[in-house]
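Morning - uridine-5'-diphosphate-glucuronic acid inputs below, output right after.
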Amino acid sequence: MKINNICCIGAGYVGGPTMSIIAQKNPDIKVNVVDMNADKISAWNSKDLDNLPVYEPGLSKVVKEARGRNLFFSDDVNKHIYDAEMIFISVNTPTKISGEGKGYAADLKYVEACAKQIAEVSKTDKIIVEKSTVPVRTSEKIKQILRLNNSDVDFQILSNPEFLAEGTAMRDLEIPDRVLIGGDKTKQGKKAIESLVKIYSSWVPKENILTTNLWSSELSKLTANAFLAQRISSINSLSELCEETGADIEEVSKAIGMDSRIGSSFLKTSVGFGGSCFQKDILNLVYIARSSGLVKVADYWEQILLINKHQRDRFSNKIVECVKNNDLHQNILLLGWAFKKDTNDSRESAAIYVANNLLNNKIRIDIYDPKVNKDQVDFDLSYLNENYDKSMVKFIEDPVSNIFNYNLIAIMTEWDEFKEYDWQYIYSKIKKPAYIFDGRNILNFEKIKKIGFNYIGIGRK
Ligand code: NAD
Ligand code: UGA
C-alpha cells in the first residue's frame, strides 16, 4: 500500500528530525508532526530557523526545504490522526516515578494515551508505528487498547525504533547503519511492513532495512543502547585503574579499539554518560529481567549504571577536595552543560550531578554552555534537588572575557570551541593557582601542563 499521509505524534528530539528527513526524501508524502505542547509547535513553525526546539547540525536546512511543502507542524492532534494512513508514536517513555516498577520500569502513559486517542478518532484503517523506545511486548498492549476502543477499523502495529544519536542525528538519519522494522507475519502485517519499507527505501539501501517480528525489534532497541552504555562504563571503570597504576586510559583505549573484533567506537572515557535514554533504557532492561526472575542478568546490566554514577561522583569529589584544600570557593567555572556536544539537550547530563555535588558542598559555580540556557540549568538543578539555591549559580555568556575571575575550570562537555580557546592567553589572565579538570580529556594535557595549569584529566596523569 502506498502511503500518502503520515502523522507523527511527538515533536521532540526524535519526532522532529526523523519526520523532517522522511518528508525531505518523500516529497509526495504529506507529513504532519503534532504535539500537545503548543509552544513547541509554534517554535517548530518559527521563521527563525536558528531557534528550532531541537538543535542539530543540518536540521534547519532540511526543515527550510520541506516545511510548508509537505512537512507541517501542528497542535491539532485529532485532525491529523483522523487524516493519516500511517501514525508514528514518538512520545517520551521516561522511567516511572510511582506505582509498580517505580524507579525502573518505563512509564508508558504517554504511549497508551496516544493509542487511546488514535482509537477514539479513527474512522479508517491505519498503520501504527511505535517509534518510541518501549519494553518488549508493548505492541501487544497497544493492540489491546486500539481494539478495545475501536473495533470498526483495522489497525496494524509496527515497531520501528530509532537509533539516531543527538548531535549527529541528521547524518545518522541520512545514512543509518540499519533501519529496523518489526511487524506481524500475517498477510496484513506483511503489507504494513512493506509500506514502511517503501518509505525508507527512497533513500536507504534495501540491504540496510532489516525486518523482524515485533518483539525482536522492540528488544533489539533496548539492548543496543545497553551494549553502547556498557562499553562506556567498561572504559570508565578502567580509567580509575589507570589512575592507580600509571597507565594512560587514552593509550589503553586506543590499543583495545585497534582490535578489529572490538572496534574503536564508544571507548572514549568521560565523566559519565548522560542523555535521556541510556539510563532509562537500562533501568527498564533491569526491570524486565528482574520481573522475569533473571536476577543475575538484571544485576549484570545494573552494574553499568553503578559505574556511571561512581565515575561522576569520583570526578566531582576530586573537584570538591581541590576547592576545599586550596580555599577556592568563589571561583569555579563549569564549561558545558549539554550531555554531549552539538545538542541543546541536557537531560541526565553528567554536568547536573557534578554541579549538584559542588552546590551541596556550598561551592558557588559559574556555568557556560553555547546552546543550553540559564532557565534550563535552573530547571535541571531544581529537578534533581528541591533545595536548589539559584543564587549560588551564575550563568555566563562569554567565559573567556571573564576568565580572570576563576581559579578552577571544569570541562563538562566536549564542545569543539573549548579545544580552540587560547589557553596560553587564559593562563596569563586567570587567578592563580589555576586548575583544569578535564571531564572529557579533550585538551592536550602535556601542553596545558607546560603552560602552567594544574591539569586533572580522567584516567591519566
Ligand atoms: P521528547 O521529550 O523530546 O519528545 C516527546 C514529545 O512528545 C514531547 O514534545 C511531548 O509534548 C509529546 N507528547 C507526549 N505525549 C503526547 C500526546 N499524548 N500527544 C501529543 N504529544 C505528546 O522525547 P524524545 O527524545 O524525542 O524521545 C521520544 C522517544 O524516542 C523516547 O521513547 C526515547 O526513548 C526514544 N528515542 C530517543 C532518542 C533521542 O536521541 N532523544 C533516540 C532514539 C530513541
Ligand atoms: C544514544 C545512542 O547512541 C543512539 O543510538 C540511541 O538512538 C539513543 O541513545 C537513544 O536511544 O536515545 P545519544 O544518547 O543521543 O544516543 O548520544 P551518544 O552519542 O550515544 O552519547 C550518550 C552519552 O555517552 C553522552 O553523554 C556521551 O558523551 C557519552 N559517551 C559516548 C561517552 O562518554 N563515551 C563514548 O565513547 C561515547
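Note: Residues 133, 162-166, 225, 228, 232, 266-268, 270, 273-275, 277-278, 339-340 surround uridine-5'-diphosphate-glucuronic acid (ligand 2) (CB under 6 Å).

O.
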